[in-house]
Design a protein that fits this description.
Low-confidence stretches: none
Main location: other
Largest sheet: 4 strands, antiparallel
Shape: elongated
Number of domains: 1
CATH superfamily: Immunoglobulins
Number of helices: 0
Subcellular location: Cell projection, Cilium; Cytoplasm
GO biological process, one term: cilium movement
Oligomer: single chain
Protein name: HYDIN/VesB/CFA65-like Ig-like domain-containing protein
InterPro entries: Hydin-like (IPR033305), HYDIN_VesB_CFA65-like_Ig (IPR053879), Ig-like_fold (IPR013783), PapD-like_sf (IPR008962)
CATH class: Mainly Beta
Order of helices and strands: EEEEEEEEE
Protein backbone atom coordinates (compact mmCIF):
# COMPACT_ATOMS: atom_id res chain seq x y z
CA UNK A 1 0.00 0.00 0.00
CA UNK A 2 1.28 3.46 -0.92
CA UNK A 3 0.24 6.46 1.15
CA UNK A 4 0.75 10.02 -0.05
CA UNK A 5 -0.39 13.46 1.08
CA UNK A 6 -1.47 16.52 -0.83
CA UNK A 7 1.09 19.30 -0.50
CA UNK A 8 0.18 22.07 1.93
CA UNK A 9 -2.88 20.15 3.17
CA UNK A 10 -2.22 17.92 6.17
CA UNK A 11 -5.86 16.79 6.22
CA UNK A 12 -5.82 15.12 2.84
CA UNK A 13 -4.11 11.73 2.66
CA UNK A 14 -4.52 9.16 -0.09
CA UNK A 15 -3.89 5.44 0.02
CA UNK A 16 -3.35 3.40 -3.11
CA UNK A 17 -2.87 -0.33 -3.42
CA UNK A 18 -0.47 -1.26 -6.20
CA UNK A 19 -0.55 -4.68 -7.83
CA UNK A 20 1.63 -6.01 -10.59
CA UNK A 21 3.21 -9.04 -12.13
CA UNK A 22 6.76 -9.52 -13.28
CA UNK A 23 8.88 -12.18 -14.87
CA UNK A 24 12.50 -12.83 -15.67
CA UNK A 25 13.57 -14.40 -18.94
CA UNK A 26 16.32 -16.91 -18.32
CA UNK A 27 17.99 -16.39 -21.71
CA UNK A 28 17.99 -13.07 -23.54
CA UNK A 29 19.73 -11.64 -26.60
CA UNK A 30 21.42 -8.25 -26.45
CA UNK A 31 22.98 -6.07 -29.09
CA UNK A 32 20.95 -7.38 -32.02
CA UNK A 33 21.29 -5.20 -35.14
CA UNK A 34 18.80 -2.32 -35.30
CA UNK A 35 18.17 -2.75 -31.53
CA UNK A 36 15.51 -5.39 -32.20
CA UNK A 37 14.42 -7.52 -29.25
CA UNK A 38 14.17 -10.94 -30.87
CA UNK A 39 14.86 -10.51 -34.58
CA UNK A 40 18.15 -10.71 -36.44
CA UNK A 41 18.04 -8.24 -39.34
CA UNK A 42 21.14 -8.70 -41.47
CA UNK A 43 20.07 -6.67 -44.47
CA UNK A 44 21.10 -7.15 -48.09
CA UNK A 45 23.98 -9.48 -48.94
CA UNK A 46 26.14 -9.90 -52.03
CA UNK A 47 25.92 -13.35 -53.65
CA UNK A 48 29.01 -15.42 -52.83
CA UNK A 49 30.27 -12.96 -50.21
CA UNK A 50 29.84 -13.54 -46.47
CA UNK A 51 28.17 -10.96 -44.27
CA UNK A 52 28.41 -11.06 -40.47
CA UNK A 53 26.37 -9.81 -37.54
CA UNK A 54 27.17 -10.13 -33.85
CA UNK A 55 25.13 -10.08 -30.66
CA UNK A 56 25.27 -11.54 -27.16
CA UNK A 57 23.41 -14.43 -25.59
CA UNK A 58 22.89 -13.73 -21.87
CA UNK A 59 22.12 -16.24 -19.12
CA UNK A 60 20.05 -14.37 -16.51
CA UNK A 61 19.27 -17.59 -14.63
CA UNK A 62 20.80 -19.19 -11.56
CA UNK A 63 21.97 -22.36 -13.37
CA UNK A 64 24.60 -22.93 -16.05
CA UNK A 65 23.24 -23.80 -19.51
CA UNK A 66 24.35 -25.44 -22.73
CA UNK A 67 23.17 -23.81 -25.96
CA UNK A 68 23.03 -25.19 -29.50
CA UNK A 69 22.12 -23.11 -32.55
CA UNK A 70 20.21 -24.73 -35.38
CA UNK A 71 19.70 -23.17 -38.78
CA UNK A 72 17.69 -26.24 -39.84
CA UNK A 73 17.84 -26.51 -43.62
CA UNK A 74 19.21 -22.97 -44.06
CA UNK A 75 22.80 -23.75 -45.10
CA UNK A 76 23.41 -20.05 -45.78
CA UNK A 77 23.56 -19.35 -42.01
CA UNK A 78 26.43 -20.30 -39.68
CA UNK A 79 26.70 -19.49 -35.96
CA UNK A 80 30.01 -19.14 -34.12
CA UNK A 81 30.08 -20.71 -31.63
CA UNK A 82 27.24 -23.02 -32.67
CA UNK A 83 27.42 -24.96 -29.39
CA UNK A 84 28.65 -23.79 -26.01
CA UNK A 85 28.27 -23.54 -22.28
CA UNK A 86 27.14 -20.36 -20.57
CA UNK A 87 27.60 -19.89 -16.85
CA UNK A 88 24.91 -18.32 -14.68
CA UNK A 89 24.75 -14.50 -14.94
CA UNK A 90 27.23 -14.47 -17.86
CA UNK A 91 27.11 -13.51 -21.53
CA UNK A 92 28.80 -14.80 -24.69
CA UNK A 93 29.27 -13.04 -28.02
CA UNK A 94 27.71 -14.85 -30.98
CA UNK A 95 28.67 -14.22 -34.60
CA UNK A 96 26.32 -15.25 -37.38
CA UNK A 97 27.61 -15.44 -40.94
CA UNK A 98 25.35 -15.39 -43.98
CA UNK A 99 26.60 -16.43 -47.40
CA UNK A 100 24.23 -16.89 -50.31
CA UNK A 101 25.07 -18.80 -53.49
CA UNK A 102 22.03 -17.54 -55.38
CA UNK A 103 19.47 -14.77 -55.19
CA UNK A 104 17.07 -15.63 -52.38
CA UNK A 105 14.99 -13.68 -49.88
CA UNK A 106 14.75 -14.77 -46.26
CA UNK A 107 11.94 -13.21 -44.30
CA UNK A 108 10.85 -14.21 -40.80
CA UNK A 109 12.55 -17.60 -40.78
CA UNK A 110 13.18 -19.59 -37.61
CA UNK A 111 16.79 -19.95 -36.49
CA UNK A 112 16.46 -21.74 -33.17
CA UNK A 113 18.68 -21.88 -30.14
CA UNK A 114 18.12 -24.93 -27.94
CA UNK A 115 19.03 -24.26 -24.30
CA UNK A 116 19.34 -26.89 -21.55
CA UNK A 117 20.32 -26.49 -17.91
CA UNK A 118 23.53 -28.31 -16.99
CA UNK A 119 25.64 -28.97 -13.94
CA UNK A 120 29.36 -28.68 -14.53
CA UNK A 121 31.87 -30.58 -12.44
CA UNK A 122 33.91 -28.49 -10.01
CA UNK A 123 36.88 -26.75 -11.60
CA UNK A 124 35.39 -26.46 -15.09
Amino acid sequence: MLTFSTMNNVFEQHKVILMGEGFNETITFEGLPDDLEDELNIGDCIIGKAKAATFQIVNNGDKDVKFRWSSADKDEFRFYPAVGHLKSKCAKRIKVMVRGTQAIKFEKIDLTCEVNQIEQAAGQ
